[in-house]
Design a protein that fits this description.
Layout (H helix, E strand, L loop, with lengths): L1 H85 L5 H80 L2 H9 L5
Helix pairs in contact: 1-2, 2-3
Length: 187
């Protein structure tokens, strides 16, 4: 019976070691999962960045096309003005019809470009909102992991203290070990 009572603190210490290992494994698994999620988010952000670059290039192209169409329209208007001054009665009607068709096509192009710019602006806004939400989520995950690390440090410190106390207690006489853990004499 005395042997069992003397082994009781060691059994309690063993159970505490097992519990600590289980907690450490849980924290390790959680940190690996957080790392995996972080890598996925980083890859998503990279993809979104590439998509943003493509959208910017597309926007620049559309802007250049719109500017070219504007110049062509102005040139067509100047030609009409010259023709009306030179030959007010010759083929003016045909030229006006052609210019009207060009202006209609240009108007349709501008309308399309305007709609495309609105779509791109909405998409850029959505990407910006998604990126900020991912950053907030990543910050929350980092804070949670830092808290877990702090808890593990505290647990390790308490284990070290307990281990030091256990080492001092094992150096004491057997009766002193029981007193060190339970505060009263044996038998």
């Amino acid at each position: 019976m005395d042997t069992l009572l003397e082994m009781l603190p060691f059994l309690a210490l063993g159970a505490l070691v097992v519990a600590t290992l289980v907690a450490a494994l849980g924290a390790l698994r959680s940190s690996r999962r957080a790392e995996w999620l972080g890598e996925d988010r980083l890859e998503l952000l990279r993809d979104q960045h590439e998509r943003l670059e493509l959208l910017r290039e597309e926007r620049e192209t559309l802007t250049e096309e719109l500017e070219l169409e504007r110049r062509e329209r102005l040139e067509a208007q100047r030609r009409v003005e010259r023709l009306t001054r030179k030959h007010p009665h010759l083929e003016l009607e045909r030229e006006l019809q052609r210019v009207t068709e060009e202006l209609e096509l240009e108007r349709e192009g501008r309308l399309h470009n305007h709609q495309e710019r609105r779509r791109l602006a909405k998409e850029l806004e959505h990407v910006g909102l998604t990126r900020s939400e991912d950053q907030r989520e990543a910050r929350r995950e980092v804070e949670r992991l830092e808290q877990e690390v702090q808890k593990l440090r505290e647990l390790v410190e308490s284990w070290e203290e307990l281990w030091e106390e256990q080492g001092e207690a094992s150096k004491a006489p057997k009766n002193g070990l029981w007193t060190a853990f339970f505060g009263h004499g044996s038998r």
